[in-house]
Amino acid sequence: MSHTLPPTLPPQAAPPAPRTGPALLGIALGYFMVLLDTTVLSVAEPDLARSLGSSTVGLQWVVTGYTVAFGALLLSAGAVGDRYGAHRVFRAGVAAFGAGSLLSVCAPGLWTLVGLRAVLGVAAAACVPSSMAMITRLYPEPARRARAVAVWAAVSGAALAAGPIAGGLLVALAGWRAVFVVNVPLAVVVLALVAGPSVRCPRGERRIDWGGQLAACAALALTTDALIAFGAHAAVHGAWSAAGAVAAGALFARRERRSASPVLVPAVLRAPGMAPMLAAGAAVGFALTAVLFVLPLFLQATRGYGTVAAGAAFLPLTLPTAVNPLLVTGRLVARLGPDRPVRAGLALLVAAGGVMAGAAGAGAPYPVLAVGLCAAGCGVSLALPALTTAVITLAPPGSAGAAGGLLNAVRQLGATLGVAVLGAFVAVHPSARGAACGLLLPAPACALAVVLSLVLRAARSRRAGA
């Protein structure tokens, strides 16, 4: 009996690897859009105040309406992405950001704008943790993922660099409303780039404590309102808000103790070395906000700068944040670990506060102020990438996402409280003296974070040697 061999089939080519570049560009542009909105409004503050008849208190709420919602909801935004699919949450956040920006252009009054800024903060919180989950899905190989995350992270520096300059140009051309127009085409481009199937993420079963999240938002918002009210000498208003903040904080703590899915993951909070890193994140947020909120008012009201000149004046601050993370900080963290770059960044922020406050108070020429701005930019670009590495490294296995969300939340908390506290100095002393006090105030917070880091590190070393 003869056996006939089957015909030899031509080898099949391996399926082509999916194109991930456009999707990564879309994710990075979404992050750029969110971060741009935290800085682009800074130089528009005086024009906004004139247009809507706003006081310093109103300007504080325009800024903090965004950061309160953004910071508080970052605590649970990662869980929402895990539950419903990160790509769905990201796309919904981008679409809401574009729509909210378009409505902000048409805002008829101050408090309508504050409410819309809160909507933008909610949308921003939906975008940031989901973008990291999408990158993980796109780049499962560690080496490619590391390069993708580096690109994604570098965008934050570009957004910080572009914000004040873009804001100054837009305000000079068409007033403060123009700073919101730019988000609309950006949102459309982002949605087009992430529309493909390569970024789809599966749904999960993670539970979300919505009641605890609402209590956290209420506590942060009421605390902010109390600080703003006390700064404006509205003692009764401030007392009621402070009492409400205490009540909301107590409710949040009670729910956290009883919740099967707490907003704050206990294992992350108890991780050795985590507390000083979170404190450092809050201090950096405080310091950066001091510059972005106080300095535009000072330069335009006291020094007579126009919006374009005020935006350009921030270049010594913003350029290091666009360049240093990839060229300097990454290499330092790889060689030395994250602790020393974090402390060096905080020390630079302390020195920068002193230089800028001295320059503002003494009426020194701009080059002196530029030295302080450059030191602040170098400090931020040293501290923030190193903090991200430290927090993710210290987090227990399986909780890196929760740790990253917590770091971003405390940064926004520091920024929110910074605007609330620093606005009081500007309102009481709307002059060079008020600007000097506002620029100097974050220096003790950064110094305290350095001391806390050193003390806790020494305590850990003693326990390890015992």
Automatic annotation (TrEMBL):
Residues 23-461 form the Major facilitator superfamily (MFS) profile domain. It is a multi-pass membrane protein. It comes from Actinacidiphila yanglinensis. SUPFAM superfamilies: MFS general substrate transporter. This is MFS transporter, DHA2 family, methylenomycin A resistance protein. It comes from the Bacteria. Keywords: Antibiotic resistance, Membrane, Transmembrane, Transmembrane helix, Transport. Coiled coil: none annotated. Pfam families: MFS_1. Its main location: membrane. The keyword Methyltransferase does not apply. The chain crosses the membrane at residues 21-41, 61-80, 92-113, 119-139, 151-172, 178-196, 208-228, 234-253, 274-299, 305-323, 344-362, 368-394, 406-427, 439-459. The keyword Transmembrane applies. It is found in: Cell membrane. One of its GO terms (cellular component) is plasma membrane.
